[in-house]
Specification:
181 residues, Alpha-Beta Plaits, 2 domains, five-stranded antiparallel β-sheet, 5 strands, 24% strand, rod-shaped, Transl_elong_EF1B/ribsomal_bS6, transmembrane helix, transmembrane, membrane
Length: 181
């Protein structure tokens, strides 16, 4: 009976040692292995993502010459907020081509939801058809603009020699918003 007792004690000791080993050695090691494998998977995913971005940048650089022309066209759609002279010259050119006298006020810069706008206000005088053509060319021109307000009225107070022109002459006040860079 004493041998049976010894066998039970030895078996119990081995069982407790196995449980102790499983709880304090194997389980923490398996948790650490699981954590390290998750970190490795995340690093692999991150590396693959960065490689994909690198390849896209490399591809863009290779095709940049092809894109350059279109990017320049897109850049030309915006009014330079630091130096809007090009846009003002464009307005004056259109006005002179159509026989419209143009007076431009100083532009103001505004920002709406991270988009820059140059606000222009100008008055014009000329024939009604010239003024309408001027507005039409503004809308279909190479700049991204939005006409905010148009006031058109008759051009009164003209001398007798110009009475014929006075019948068709109008004064207008126009305000526009142009996308700026």
């Amino acid at each position: 009976m004493e041998t049976k007792k010894t066998i039970y004690i030895i078996t119990s000791a081995f069982f407790l040692a196995a449980v102790f080993l499983a709880m304090f050695v194997i389980y923490p090691l398996s948790q650490e292995i699981s954590q390290k494998s998750n970190e490795l998977i995340m690093q692999k995913d991150s590396r693959l993502f960065l490689e994909g971005q690198f390849n896209e940048v490399k591809s863009f650089k290779e095709k940049y010459a092809d894109y350059r022309q279109n990017l320049d066209k897109i850049d030309g759609l915006f009014v330079d907020s630091q130096n809007p002279v090009g846009f003002i010259e464009y307005l004056e050119k259109i006005a002179s081509e159509l026989g419209v006298d143009l007076k431009i006020s100083a532009p103001t810069l505004s920002k709406e939801s991270s988009v820059l706008y140059e606000n222009f206000q100008f008055s014009s005088s000329g024939s009604f058809s010239g003024t309408l053509k001027f507005i039409g060319k503004l809308e279909s021109g190479p700049y991204l603009i939005q006409i905010q307000n148009i006031n058109i009225g008759s051009n009164k107070g003209v001398a007798n020699a110009e009475k014929q022109a006075a019948l068709t002459g109008v004064k207008s006040s126009i305000s526009i918003k142009a996308l700026a860079k």
